[in-house]
Amino acid sequence: MNWKKNFKNVFVAIGISFLLIIALFPFYWLAFSSVKVLTDLFEPNVIFPWETTLTLFNYEFAVTKAYPSLISLFLNSLYISILSVVLTLTIATFGAYAVARMKFRGKALITNSILLIYTFPGIIMIIPLFVLASKLGFAGNMTGLAIAYLAQTVPVALYMMAGYFQTIPAEIEEAALIDGCSRFEVIRKITLPLSLPTIASISLFIFMIVWNEYLFARTFLLTLSSDQFTLAIGLARKTAHLADFGAYLASAMILLTPVIILYLLAEKYMVKGLTAGAVKG
C-alpha cells in the first residue's frame, strides 16, 4: 500500500509541476526578455539570467522614446479600471442584496437571467451600447467607457454577490433592524464587512477585465488623441520594430504588473470569494 501511495504522490507532484511550468513559463520569458540586452534578445539559447547581462535600458527606452506617452496611457487605464470597479460594486451590491433578501414580482426570472446577459459576446453589445452612449452624450470619453463596461461587469458581480449574501444568516440583519438600524446601515455595517472575500475577488476580476480590454476601448475612444487611449490600445497601435522590440516587451511587462500585484495582495481572498455561495444553508 505504501508504494501505491508514494507513486500517487509522485505522480501528483509531477503533474502539478508540469502545469506550473506551462502556466508560468510565458510570464518568465516576458519578464526575463524585457531585461535582456538587445544582442541577446533573439538568442534562443539564452534562457537563464546568468547567461546574459541584465539591464533596465528597455524600460527607460520605452518610457522616454519608444512610447513617450506610456505613463499617460498607464494612468488612463488605471482611472478607467478603478472607476469601473467602484461603479460595478456600487450597483451590484444593492442589486444583489435585493435579489438575496427582498421579495418582489419577477425575482426568479431576474435571478435566472443575470448570467444570461454575461454570456453575450462583447461584439454583439458594442454597437447598441455605443449608439446609446452617443445619444446620452458620454461616448468619446474615458468616463463613458467605464459606464459602458457595466454591461459586462455588473451581471457576473451581481450573481456572485447575491450567492454570498444568501449564505449570511438573515437573523443577524433582522436583529440589527430591530435595534433601529436602517436597511442601508445594515448593508454598510453588517453585510459588506462580512462579504470582504467576495468583494476582493470580484474587484480583482473586474479590474482584470477592464485593464486588458481592447474592443470597447478602441471603439469608445476612437475620436480622442493618442495620449488619451488606454495602455492596451497604445501598445497595439504601435508595431514594435526590431530596434525597439525590447521596449515593446518592457511595455507589455508594465501592462501586466498591476494585475500581478493586485492578485498577490488579494490571493488569500480569491478561493474563498470565488466559491462563495456554492454551498448554501
Q: Give the integer mean of the pLDDT values.
A: 81
How many helical stretches?
A: 13
Category from helices, strands and their pairing = mainly alpha
Q: How many beta-strand segments?
A: 0
User: Could you name the CATH class of the largest domain?
Assistant: Mainly Alpha
CATH fold topology of the largest domain: MetI-like fold
Architecture of the largest domain, according to CATH?
Orthogonal Bundle
Q: State the CATH superfamily name of the largest domain.
A: MetI-like
Q: Identify low-pLDDT runs.
A: 277-281
Give the end-to-end Cα distance, rounded to a whole number of Å. Answer: 39 Å
Structure write-up:
The protein is mainly alpha-helical. The chain has two domains: 2-62, no CATH class; 66-274, Orthogonal Bundle (MetI-like fold), CATH 1.10.3720.10. Helix content is 73%, strand content 0%. It has 13 helices and no strands. The longest helix is centred in the N-terminal third of the chain and has 32 residues, at 2-33. 30% of the residues are buried. Mean pLDDT is 81; it is low at 277-281.
Strand-helix topology:
Blueprint (H helix, E strand, L loop, with lengths): L1 H32 L23 H10 L3 H32 L5 H12 L3 H15 L5 H7 L1 H16 L4 H9 L4 H12 L1 H17 L2 H6 L10 H7 L7 H30 L7
Helix pairs in contact: 2-13, 3-6, 3-7, 3-10, 4-7, 7-10, 8-9, 10-13
